[in-house]
Amino acid sequence: MATFDKEWIVRYVEDGLSPEERRQFELRLEEDPGLRSQVALYREVRSVLEKRLPADQNEQSLRVSLQQLNAEHFSPAGQTAKGPRRISLTRWAAGMAAAAAIIVATMLLWPSSRDSVFDRLGRTEMISTTERGNNSDSLIREAAAHFNKQDFAGALPFLDRAVRADSTNQLALFYQGVAEWHIGRGDEARRVLQHVFNGESVLRYEAAFYLALSYARENKKDSAREWLKKIPADAPVSSRASELEINLK
Questions:
Q1: CA 205 from chain center: how many Å?
Q2: In whole angstroms, what is the distance from residue 175 CA to residue 196 CA?
């Protein structure tokens, strides 16, 4: 049976699967709530980013190019693609504004192997949107360059400016809260993350997880458990929430 990783999810939503691949994938969807949750998260993040991207007169030609690349580089198993061999998903998506959500959905919360259980559970990589000349997006890219080197203090000024420029930017708010948590400013992190949670963002359950994590780090176990209770069992972050709950015992 096929292993349905994040590439499968993206190809499914973007209509890049062969009929047989789609049939296999949808059979697994019926019996796997975790996979359904990942598909729903990708769809929602993609929708959010598409709404944020400015209008582009070349959008139609971009979509045609994406479809051609998909046919060329993501051909069904058993078929031999003409031209260059298959390229990785992130390379395929590079520079494609319409594919920005692919990067976010696949890399939003990627755990590391740091020794501390809280640091390991809280490790996330920040991926910015595709460059479009927007000042807010430029700030996000600058923030990501620092954030992904674990220079959270260096990332914060750019995230702060991005939030001031657009207070509805849920990605900037979320990473702002996570950066505050990483540098030990628990109260400020909780203020920002609770705003994300209350705003019913696509990231609201990830925000709830970091709220729980912030209380856990301060050994406020009851408060941490209260936030963990807000995370549904089928949320993408639920497995890490369960691990955190075990560590609170």
A1: 12
A2: 10
Give the tokens for residue 82: 């003409």
SS (H, E, C) the chain: CCCCCHHHHHHHHCCCCCHHHHHHHHHHHHHCHHHHHHHHHHHHHHHHHHHHCCCCCCHHHHHHHHHHHHHHHCCCCCCCCCCCCCCCHHHHHCCCHHHHHHHHHHHCCCCCCCCCHHHHHHCCCCCCCCCCCCHHHHHHHHHHHHHCCCCHHHHHHHHHHHHHHCCCCHHHHHHHHHHHHHCCCHHHHHHHHHHHHHCCCCCHHHHHHHHHHHHHHCCCHHHHHHHHCCCCCCCCCHHHHHHHHHHCC
pLDDT digits (tens, 9 = 90+) for 177-189: 999 999 999 999 9
Write the pLDDT tens digit of every residue in 58-84: 455 545 555 554 554 444 444 444 444
* C-alpha to C-alpha distance for 160 and 80, rounded to whole angstroms: 48
pTM: 0.56
What's the angle, vertex CA 89, arms to CA 64 and CA 120, rounded to 5?
Answer: 145
> How far is the C-alpha of 111 from the C-alpha of 120, rounded, in Å?
6
> Of 179, 215, 213, 210, nearest to 194 (Cα)?
210
- What are the CA-CA distances from residue 102 to residues 89, 106, 198, 204, 219 (Å)? 8, 6, 25, 19, 36
